[in-house]
Amino acid sequence: MSSNHDRAIVVSALKHAAPYIRLFKGKTFVIKAGGEIFADIQKTHAFMEQVGILQQVGIRVVLIHGGGPQSTELATALGLRTTFIDGRRVTDGDSMNVATMVLSGQINTRILAICRDLQIPAVGISGVDAGLIRAHKRPPVKRKGAAPIDYGFVGDIDSVDADILRKQLDNNLMPVISPISCDEQGTILNINADTVAAAIAAELKAEKLILATGAAGILEDLDDPSSLISYIDRSALHKLKKAGKLADGMLPKAAAIDDAISHGVQRVHVISYRLPDSLLLEVFTNEGTGTLVVDDIGKLTPAEQSPAS
Amino acid sequence: MSSNHDRAIVVSALKHAAPYIRLFKGKTFVIKAGGEIFADIQKTHAFMEQVGILQQVGIRVVLIHGGGPQSTELATALGLRTTFIDGRRVTDGDSMNVATMVLSGQINTRILAICRDLQIPAVGISGVDAGLIRAHKRPPVKRKGAAPIDYGFVGDIDSVDADILRKQLDNNLMPVISPISCDEQGTILNINADTVAAAIAAELKAEKLILATGAAGILEDLDDPSSLISYIDRSALHKLKKAGKLADGMLPKAAAIDDAISHGVQRVHVISYRLPDSLLLEVFTNEGTGTLVVDDIGKLTPAEQSPAS
Amino acid sequence: MSSNHDRAIVVSALKHAAPYIRLFKGKTFVIKAGGEIFADIQKTHAFMEQVGILQQVGIRVVLIHGGGPQSTELATALGLRTTFIDGRRVTDGDSMNVATMVLSGQINTRILAICRDLQIPAVGISGVDAGLIRAHKRPPVKRKGAAPIDYGFVGDIDSVDADILRKQLDNNLMPVISPISCDEQGTILNINADTVAAAIAAELKAEKLILATGAAGILEDLDDPSSLISYIDRSALHKLKKAGKLADGMLPKAAAIDDAISHGVQRVHVISYRLPDSLLLEVFTNEGTGTLVVDDIGKLTPAEQSPAS
Amino acid sequence: MSSNHDRAIVVSALKHAAPYIRLFKGKTFVIKAGGEIFADIQKTHAFMEQVGILQQVGIRVVLIHGGGPQSTELATALGLRTTFIDGRRVTDGDSMNVATMVLSGQINTRILAICRDLQIPAVGISGVDAGLIRAHKRPPVKRKGAAPIDYGFVGDIDSVDADILRKQLDNNLMPVISPISCDEQGTILNINADTVAAAIAAELKAEKLILATGAAGILEDLDDPSSLISYIDRSALHKLKKAGKLADGMLPKAAAIDDAISHGVQRVHVISYRLPDSLLLEVFTNEGTGTLVVDDIGKLTPAEQSPAS
Amino acid sequence: MSSNHDRAIVVSALKHAAPYIRLFKGKTFVIKAGGEIFADIQKTHAFMEQVGILQQVGIRVVLIHGGGPQSTELATALGLRTTFIDGRRVTDGDSMNVATMVLSGQINTRILAICRDLQIPAVGISGVDAGLIRAHKRPPVKRKGAAPIDYGFVGDIDSVDADILRKQLDNNLMPVISPISCDEQGTILNINADTVAAAIAAELKAEKLILATGAAGILEDLDDPSSLISYIDRSALHKLKKAGKLADGMLPKAAAIDDAISHGVQRVHVISYRLPDSLLLEVFTNEGTGTLVVDDIGKLTPAEQSPAS
Amino acid sequence: MSSNHDRAIVVSALKHAAPYIRLFKGKTFVIKAGGEIFADIQKTHAFMEQVGILQQVGIRVVLIHGGGPQSTELATALGLRTTFIDGRRVTDGDSMNVATMVLSGQINTRILAICRDLQIPAVGISGVDAGLIRAHKRPPVKRKGAAPIDYGFVGDIDSVDADILRKQLDNNLMPVISPISCDEQGTILNINADTVAAAIAAELKAEKLILATGAAGILEDLDDPSSLISYIDRSALHKLKKAGKLADGMLPKAAAIDDAISHGVQRVHVISYRLPDSLLLEVFTNEGTGTLVVDDIGKLTPAEQSPAS
Known about the structure:
Helix content of chain A: 40-55%
Shape of chain A: globular
Oligomer: homohexamer
Strand order of the largest sheet of chain A: 5-10-2-1-13-15-16-14
CATH superfamily of chain A: Acetylglutamate kinase-like
CATH topology of chain A: Carbamate kinase
Distance between the termini of chain A: 29 Å
Number of helices of chain A: 10
Number of strands of chain A: 16
Largest sheet of chain A: 8 strands, mixed
Largest interface: A-B, 43 and 43 residues
Structural class of chain A: alpha/beta
Strand content of chain A: 15-25%
CATH class of chain A: Alpha Beta
Number of domains of chain A: 1
């Protein structure tokens, strides 16, 4: 960056970013990133570099990661099978072991190692640590005219103790959270990472919950990628769901979004990790790149709709 | 425990334990437990119950675990091979991934889940978190008349930042440490758990470093299990080593013991996890069950030799 | 304790005690001990050793002592007379001086000296210090057809400022309390030690109030020592009182127990200091040795009735 | 105070006192008051009112009291005898008990009760509490050609733990100290109150040590009350002692003064409690009323000699 | 002060002042001093000496100053004109600049410099600093049958953030406040110093608001200086105002007094800086020298009416 | 900023700035800005916007301002004369008053008002506040063959108490400092703002001292604006001075720079406020725009020379 032109750009961009930095400094962002991002070292690096910038300008960032593809991969290598029902993984003992190793072991450690390289002070944690998540094994779900669905070692959250996260954030450490959890008897349980992210965002009263996914956002028409919805509220989201316009993978996300907003999270963003710099663009420009979900569009004042995306 | 006799025993034992509790309250014990302990759920439970009692009477406990057998098992299931030189594992990329998943994922999580069951407030951490361990990849070791040994992704410790452990202990949380570490560029590295335990004990200026192993302790005669040494100092340990009387697995332990003591750890205990309640017996009785290593027996005052084992 | 058998006992007892320790750690126990205990150096030592163990395992112990026999002894040596009405001492100026010297001087100091020997960090205090107890001189009690009873320098408590006790407990110091108090004009007043203990337990929202007395506990039949009541609630205690089944010395205790429970103290224990180790047995075994008084037995869940005695 | 003249006096006096208040605010004064003061309720009140004013203007006041006459009185009433050698009391078991009751019980409590009346937040403490004073029983003193002197339960100070006093002062509480102390085995010991005051002043690095006595101060000529020395340093005090010009009661005071100054206390004042308002006059006027002892008069700058008395 | 008589006076005055000191220690006094006081170096010194004594005896003093005469003087020297309506200054751009320089520059700095000389730890601040005062420009006031009054750069207070003042007071610093303020767009605004003082006293829940003025206090009869009202409540003050008996300069003061009391300030004093020592006399004598305004005289208990003036 | 191109620029600039932000977060920058900047509202706004960005990204910014032109302007309006010797202002009583009003009143308040508008939490302070600067009046400077130079109310710094600044910075407040100071007797003194900035930078052990001036930086040839020196060390600066190559206005700056570096300030930057965005360019690009002065260029490692400008 040696030319005067380039240097002017840096200054102009800093001035552009300054009101966002002031607005978000000290606020909490809960970011959930799907396992696909971490299947590739370049993607991981590009994503974490963006996360690191958020952390460096003073945002209290909490990162929750998934690990579906990697779990499938290890299960396959070990000759295990994976089953999904309604977009949620069914988990037997071996699968649970695989998920634990992949999520709390491989992926969590890799993210922390990249944080070391990027000089982001970070610390790994899972729902099993220090009572962070109190969960119970989901009871088999009864179905009319069919056998109940037993999701195996799948947990539902009873409560989140966000105190340990607040202490880490106060110490300027970014928590990197694996969604593996357990019940009070120490049975290890798998919980959907979107669900964990929503529960933690609710408990931390986060300013934003950002879901980084493989999709561009929420689509008006499932078959038309150009039908991206930029701005939507809960009631419209409910209508989409009832109309069957949410893709399979989006169903648990929609439930998580609904849960977070109903517990006071102001804004939920769905962005695509495939789009370069989508995280920074979403946070530091008014237009963003994905879908922003709020409680009730009608209630927002014009001021609330800008300058924060 | 309903008879008067039984009740009298409880009281008598409490009175026996009281001076130990007073002596050790607020002191730091670093305990290293080999992977074998955690290969079996009953053994794990029995061991962690003892650890929990230490924590409950006010000792600041730091637990470091290994995971050799489990890593070997997963590597075998995945068709990988494991090589050892001088009692230390050689680690290629796949092995490193396996070790990461097993140590930081499977074993660490299982220990934390059992802590949840035993109501021990604990938190998992590895050398990768928040700069806990700064390490570098070990350069290939030159050998006369032979190819250099390249241990692969094996690390040597540059420094330990014990501050994060102290904060956890101050918050009444027991750190459960996986020895997986990394260098400043984020290359994940394997480090011998004994070595990690010794470095952490040194940095925390621990009162005790306790190594729970499959052996009964240090033996005078490798072939005679009854030749257990109860009490030894560094110079005598050096002599044993020079005389070739230390078993292969004991070699890295001896180096770790030497390192810890030379950095100010007062007492290092080698105990067998096979002996029931060996941890409690070692801490709460004068005789103990394994081998106690000190700096220099000659320098101890009679008072220092008792009542602490 | 050299045999394997003995050592196993220690371990077994520690495991037995561990859940109690976890349950009571950080909780407040207010213990009131009658003056008889401190009339004998062996008894004092045996009792304080038990108190010290409670303190060492992390219980926040507050000790209140009486001093009736010693006051009587000194009064006799000085040629003074002591009068009791309804189990409460009547206090003229000389008696008040004697009580002050014996309670705040002799007994309090002796307890602290034994604490020094037992390495229990403790600090003496009385109701006169720093506004701990705000009291007023009891007005003469009118009686039909008889002269009013003037209890002399006997006080009734207006309020307790427990803040100073909390600071001492936070500093890991055990308060040893003499019940001598005063009014806001500095008139020194005698207050029944059971009453002081109940008021302090109420103010500290203590987990337990333990009254260590010369009696085995509360008896069903005053004349039958074997009729000890193990477990009773407030309404049953009221019935006993109405039926005239409470001994003279037990009357003020019953009022204090009632007061403590009505202000939120969960459990009040009446134990005998004559029974060896009664304090430890009461705390660390389910059966205990004396009488446990609760608010309403019917309301307790089974879980609440165990494992804490 | 209704006339304009009177009101002008108040204002003028406040202005006079203001620089002293600024100078002494937050500084520590250790005041030792002999037992004679507390033998009379009017004297006690008059003295404590002055102490309270010092405390109210922001001085950190520590008060140590004696109790010789009262101990003698109680001993007499009980038919005991008291012996003095070299101005120090010899203490057998009964005497020790009497001293404990009188000093830690009667006098300490009375002072605290008056503090309650004067709204001085104060808390009683003795050398036995919480390791405040670590002492040992004085071994019998050998004498040439005579039997060794055994002072009985008389202690010599090993160390003072001033931390507990600092916490009380930080909480705006005035410590009222009885000199009764003990050894580490809990043997209760008598220590001269001047000696205790000097040791505590040294440990607290007090600005002033003030000894309030029955004498007007230190006299040039023992037989001439008008020969009061206003200002003296250590070497001159040593000369007086060698010349035999110190009265019996002044001998232990002189040793205490010497000890305090040699440990860094800047100024030691000897004043008479008989002179009305002597404490306030000593602190708030340049001239004072008694004897001021400093390390070395020659080393003082003119500024140091004024305006502080 | 060398005679015994003089010294006795100091002691007697200290005893007189002690209960006031105890009563006011740690309480907050907001003192507003008109610009006239600071037009003369001797007057300033005499007044600040009194303020310093209040601060030294432990009162949390906040000082707000005016600067009318000095502003007029500088405006005159610069050839500007000043207009007043209803006792409030009308402020154009040049006048605002003059007021800023005089109040926040000249007078504030001079007061701080005198504080340096008097060893009063003080720090200057204005309504512009750190959001201390959030104000808005007063909209032109409509009048029937006349053009609206535009007060120019005159502000009305929206809110006071007293946190910064509390931090300064906690650090033992006396805030010296210039009433210059601004709106959220940074337009500098003039606000009447009495109004600022009342708003700050209300926000700090001050014990006293003291207005030091050129007048002796509030008069019954404007033309009769001997008709000073010593004691008045709000309703009587309202009656005086309605009856037109308040002087021009007293009108904004009366509104400020009313505002302070309605927001919980207990006592407002109006005193004359012309009377020597009026501030100390008002605080440290029952009679005071000026007018004391309370909420409702009828509601005061006798105890509340004394001993505090 | 609606086009994709523009949005990409923001992201790219953020990535560029991130390592600088990480490097400087929590570090202290002392910025001195000459009075010329504040003579114009647009310039002030443009400069303060840059300062605000530094503050918002986590740098601890301390701003010191001058006020020469404005003082001259007011002095002229009042008919006073200003004299300079060796680039330093001579200050009589009237000039001192003018400087106080202009610097501590007008300019300081205007900067704070703009901070309010820019949402920069800031607080004004001068050397007179709370002992920030302890100075003495400069004694007349003797000259050979000429009358001594009396600079009037010009001060020289004895010491800086940076504690109050650290507290403000810890509270996230930016100190805005007027260089007006005083001696211990309260005589108000003028001190060169560069000198004050250097002394404060030294006391705060600032990472950078930045002098924003009317000149482009330090020139090799006074008459050739293109001869700007980018990088220089102390010895080279000394040579320039000896060779007479420093402009008059640069002489006190050179002394201040020398003083700051000799007291441990790592880097001093001289930049021109005339160049748009010069402050941001200097901090966030390697090349900068002005002159960087370091202790000794030869001692810098290559790493130290980059990436921080």
